[in-house]
Specification:
About 25% of the residues lie in helices and about 25% in strands. By secondary structure, the protein is of the alpha/beta class. The protein has two domains: about 240 residues, Alpha-Beta Barrel (TIM Barrel), CATH 3.20.20; about 80 residues, Elongation Factor Tu (Ef-tu), domain 3 (Beta Barrel), CATH 2.40.30.10. It has an eight-stranded parallel barrel with strand order 1-2-3-4-5-6-7-11, surrounded by five helices. A six-stranded antiparallel beta barrel has the order 13-14-20-17-16-21. A hairpin with a 5-residue loop joins strand 17 and strand 18. The model has no long low-confidence stretch (mean pLDDT about 90).
């Protein structure tokens, strides 16, 4: 049995460092061109070199998204981009376009080729054809069930790796190939610039009743007709492995470093726990609970088990049970040196996610500001404080407070 890869998103350097700190086997990120997330900060050419160096020092691979569908006038700059990425040290390109694949084979033959979910791979015929074209991995369409993935796995070379999304936001359109944003805002989702109009409120009109609108459901906020739930497969590691998934992909290159920390950590520990005892695996409660400590929409299991309610139709908002209140810069016994992010008070019990990934609780006994004054609360974002607490809080820890 092959241990599946935990593949984490890195929209910027902070997210990259979070993924490395909390146990990713690989990260996927973008340069400043040809990536499907223009909302992320992404990585300049120099930053990409640094990212590869940091990742490789921890034996973590770097997968570079090159998965937009470039227009003809953009292709002239592709060879320089591919060679720059090769020289920076990326381990794989994630590509959706066959022409881009051919250029990558010519200008960066040392770099592995992964076929993006944007290509919509749903069967073994396409997977095998892409393998014959040089792909070492296919990122399957999100619409496949576990049985369909197992069938594809059985009919493809064992050398061909299979990657699927296991956590994060889901697109309402097939494999993310959506035109709504382009039509409504002029921002092309297939070029990394989606405005997410699927999350907006909608009302229903009837053509003979001009000026009258009707919510599809009785709700004075409108109807969130296309608003997909978030995917969460943390409780189904055995089923994913049995189906033959090689890499567990966490969505979220537009998400925060905190999100990357928590979800990378959860899947890292879930995979490790599974590998210790595959036949008797039971997911520890604390791992499932960690997935509830980030902002998220209602969870489901996507298409893996067949048809399941896919949309949240009564609201467009997030479930948010915890706030990040500080990060630990270091400690001396039970004295922690922190940078504050959200307000908390002396006496509060804080939930701590330490670099070893095991959460624990600690009470704030006292706070001292940079002037050496005792204060009752931490109300100023990014303020440096000394905190006396009931537990040692090592550098790199995230401090959270339940709402």
């Amino acid at each position: 049995m092959i241990k599946p890869e935990v593949l984490s998103p890195a929209g910027d350097m902070e997210c990259l460092e979070a993924a490395l700190r909390f146990g990713a086997d690989a990260v996927f990120l973008a340069g400043t061109r040809f990536g499907m997330r223009t909302a992320s900060k992404n990585f300049s050419d120099e930053d990409l070199k640094r990212a590869c160096s940091l990742a490789h020092n921890k034996n973590v691979k770097v997968h570079l998204t090159c998965n937009t569908l470039p227009r003809g006038d953009e292709t002239d700059s592709l060879p320089d981009f591919l060679m720059m990425a090769r020289d920076a040290g990326v381990d794989a390109f994630i590509i959706a376009d066959i022409g881009v694949m051919e250029l990558a084979k010519k200008y960066a033959p040392e770099v592995a080729l992964h076929v993006s979910t944007q290509a919509g791979v749903t069967n073994h015929l396409t997977a095998n054809a892409l393998y014959n074209l040089g792909a070492s991995r296919v990122v399957l369409a999100r619409e496949l069930t576990l049985d369909e993935i197992a069938n594809l796995r059985a009919k493809t070379p064992k050398e061909l790796e299979i990657e699927t999304f296991v956590h994060g936001a889901m697109c309402v359109s097939f494999s993310g190939r959506c035109l709504i944003s382009s039509y409504m805002t002029g921002r092309d989702a297939n070029r990394g610039d989606c405005a997410q109009p699927c999350r907006w409120k909608y009302h229903l009109f009837e053509e003979n009743r001009e000026g009258q609108f009707f919510p599809v459901e009785e709700n004075d906020q409108g109807t969130f007709l296309y608003n997909s739930r978030d995917l969460c497969m943390i409780e189904h590691i055995p089923e994913l492995v049995k189906a033959g998934v090689s890499s567990f992909k966490i969505e979220g290159r537009a998400k925060s470093g905190y999100y990357v920390s928590v979800i990378t950590n959860a899947y890292r520990h879930a995979v490790d726990e599974y590998m210790k005892n595959p036949d008797g695996f039971i997911l520890p409660d604390w791992i499932k609970e960690e997935t509830e400590k980030i902002s998220h929409r209602e969870y489901n299991t996507g298409f893996y088990f067949g048809s399941e309610p896919g949309q949240v139709t009564d609201n467009g908002g997030y479930i948010r049970k915890y706030d990040v209140v500080a990060f630990s810069e270091g400690c001396d016994g039970n004295t922690a040196y922190i940078t504050q992010r959200n307000k908390f008070l002396v006496g509060d019990t804080l939930d701590v996610l330490a670099p070893n990934g095991i959460p624990f609780e600690a009470q704030c006994l006292a706070l001292i500001n940079e002037n050496g004054e005792n204060v009752d609360s931490a109300p100023h974002a990014m303020e440096k404080l000394t905190m006396l607490t009931t537990r040692e809080i090592p550098a790199g820890s995230v401090l959270r407070k339940k709402r």
